[in-house]
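Last lecture ended with a question: if I hand you only a sequence, what can you say about the shape of the protein? Today we answer it with a concrete record. The protein is DoxX family protein. Below, first the input exactly as provided, then the predicted structure, then a couple of comments.
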Amino acid sequence: MNLALWICAGLLAVVALTGGISKTFVPKEKLSAAPGGGWTGDAGVGLVKTLGVLELLAAAGLILPAVADVAPVLVPVTATCWVLLMVGAMITHGRRGEPNFVVLNLIYLALAAFIAWGRFGPGSFTG
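The predicted structure:
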């Protein structure tokens, strides 16, 4: 169980890091031309950059607290926040008629829910 939780956290951290870097450092005009990035054309630069920073923090929050053994409860808290972020992403892509991205966000949501459940419960770092 512990290994599965670490693998899921690692995969999700890579997803968050990739998305965070692109939203934080790639110009909004370039993002809006990318597949799945059309929503950025309707969003303000500040919102896109804020979401990027939140994704960078999520990437760190899924891994670093457990590795450093400093407040490891932040791992499932971060995963729970990621679930909420993915609900928003699914709503956004759903409204834009992008079912493939809704499914992709659902997969990310499921990974995060598994991490939250596992790290709050049977795979907790405290037990």
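Comments.
1. The helical segments are 2-25, 28-33, 45-68, 74-95, 99-120.
2. The longest helix spans residues 2-25.
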